[in-house]
Amino acid sequence: MSGAVVAGGRRERTKAANRAAILAAGRDVFAELGYGAASVRDIVRRTELAAGTFYNYFPDKESVFRALVHEVGAEARRRVRAARRAATTPTAFVEDAYRAYFSFIVEDAVRGAFLTRNAGAIRVMFEESEGPAGIDELAADLRAAIAAGLLPELDVELCAAAMVAVALELGQRLTERVPPDVEGATRFATQLFLVGIVRL
């Protein structure tokens, strides 16, 4: 193995570690101070990196925030989609997905604080990218469940938009409660949609 390949691999690992350190620091700072009050300086102070190094990875605090929102959204969608795809009953399709989402947003204290303290800013950014992606994925899963006979015919686009909106609203309130009642929120959301689906 040539020295250039080893050096290149080490360089890539260092880049990945630096980016991860900035994101971890950003998550802590945004959770503690909120997006509006946080600064690039606050984020850099939570790392062992030089101030100039930050700008090799992100141009400003908004780009760090957007990366964190995308990271949270992508993982939430992955878990929820896995729960829906494993479902074998209409109840499980709805209930297991909501439980997966609500559990995810409250399982980590810093993530919960990040979501709660920055709800307004997250909502704006979420609606630009993560929300539409989540709705599209849910619509695809609803179509697959209908085709498989798991769910009745329904307006897929409206149902997907409504289910995601309920998840976001209940999720925000869930993170504000002490302690968060994952099962209560899951039960409420499940009953809300299953009554409508069964009537269909």
Structural features, described:
It is a single chain. It contains 10 helices and no strands. With 200 residues, the protein is an all-alpha fold. The protein has one domain: Orthogonal Bundle (Tetracycline Repressor, domain 2). The longest helix has 31 residues. The radius of gyration is 20 Å and the shape is elongated. The model has no long low-confidence stretch (mean pLDDT 91).
Descriptors:
10 helices; mainly alpha; 0% strand; 200 residues
Summarize the structure.
The protein is an all-alpha fold. The protein is 80% helix and 0% strand. The chain has helices at residues 3-33, 40-45, 51-54, 61-86, 90-106, 109-117, 119-128, 130-147, 156-176, 182-199.
Q: Rg to the nearest angstrom?
A: 20 Å
CATH architecture classification? Orthogonal Bundle
CATH C-level label: Mainly Alpha
Average pLDDT confidence is 91
Distance between the termini: 64 Å
Q: Major sheet, described briefly?
A: none
Number of domains: 1
Q: Please state the structural category.
A: mainly alpha
What is the strand content? under 5%
Looking at CATH, which topology would you report?
Tetracycline Repressor, domain 2
Strand and helix order: HHHHHHHHHH
- Count the E strands: 0
Q: How many DSSP H or I helices?
A: 10
Which stretches are low in confidence, meaning pLDDT under 50 for 5 or more residues running? none
The percentage helix is over 70%
